[in-house]
Amino acid sequence: MSSKLIRVALVGLSANAITSWAATAHLPYLQSARGQTQYKVVALLNSSKEAAERARSHFNLPSTVKTYGDPAQLAADDEVDLVSIVVQSDKHYAAVEPSFRAGKAVYVEWPLTESLERSLALVGERKGPDRNIIGLQARLSPVASKVKQLLASGRIGKVLDSQVRGFSAMGLGKQPGTLLEGPMEVMFSQRAIGGNHFSVLYAHMVDLVHSVLGEFKDFHSQLQIRWPELGVVDKDGVQLRTRKNDIPDLISAHGELAPGAADIQDGATLSVLYRSGTPFKGELPYAWYIQGQAGELKITSPFGPILQAATKPGVKIELHDYTTDEVTEIEWESEWKNWQKELEMPGCRLVGDMYNRYALWYQQEDKEAAPVGGEWPTLDVAIRRQEELDRMLKDFDRASQT
After folding, report:
1. Which is it for strands 216-224 and 133-135: parallel, antiparallel or unpaired?
2. What is the rounded distance in angstroms from the CA atom of residue 8 to the CA atom of residue 41?
3. Global pTM?
4. Same domain, 76 and 145
5. Among candidates 130, 146, 144, which has minimal Cα distance to 384?
6. In DSSP terms, which residues pair with 218 in a beta bridge?
7. Which domain holds residue 283?
8. Do 237 and 348 share a domain, yes or no?
9. What does the pLDDT look like over 279-324, one tens digit per residue?
10. What are the pLDDT digits (tens) for 333-352?
11. Can you give 7-29 as a three-state secondary structure string?
């Protein structure tokens, strides 16, 4: 077993970033008591060396932490083992490609890149097992773990069908068809950036379902752009300008589940619906139903469909037993590990579990054996999910041109 600390470079740690995920989800684990027994932050990469230096100062990191503004220079640093990419989607490729080509391990937040084409160009023809990390950490949620346990126990019998419905108003104004002003207004209106309600929020939602129930054997999808022009508003709802929008904001997919991941009846159907914006007033923004022969599960969240950032009290798992006709709420919070409970933000707990599982594998003598701390989502998973999304977009674009 190796006792060597894994030397990490954080890409995108900034007090002024569009998203603060590096600061709120990655850094807290790396600086936690457990994280410091496994990792050491040794470098930062930002848009410039000066920006990296400002981040080092802002987050009170040691002066020994190296600062870079050039991805190629980071890739050439042989004192870095793992590079964590936490920047805007369309900047992923440029940030990660030199380090990936140099043979460094990488942790890339979802999506891998802004498109399937770019992701395939990045990973190329790899050989051997993939032990890199993709940020689809909702798969490690204790809610997902508990649902898997319930299915494996036979409490609801063989799965017959499943439906999931999600809504999210992230980055949107209070009125339908509006965006809040700021950097995210561009991301949420320009598909080419690759970080939007379809490619991020829908993808996270459906990936969690696939991780529990398995992939589609085949499926059909229907996408719609309800608002081809969006109003950009300030925090008070006053419209400032308009923006053209080419991103689907209503997504529906349904198909037959492939066998293997759970005890599923042949021909079992999965139906998925995602809509940007809020649900009908008074209704929950996330509901997932799994019907079995002997009962049905319902998973709900008042925080929306993104469990990797909102696995916290309020999320419910309920079981309707057909024999007794009783509904029971299933406790899931005990699934948190003790060290996770010391981390306040739920998103940090799941990102921390990704780091923890990777570190435990890194320390084990037999790297070909199954990871002792459990599997994590890899770049292979990222490609599989982007293939699904790419097919949906291409079908939508073809239909729109006829």
Report:
1. unpaired
2. 5
3. 0.95
4. no
5. 130
6. 256
7. 139-335
8. no
9. 999 999 999 999 999 999 999 999 999 887 777 789 999 999 999 9
10. 999 999 999 998 778 999 99
11. EEEEECCCCCCCCCHHHHHHHHH
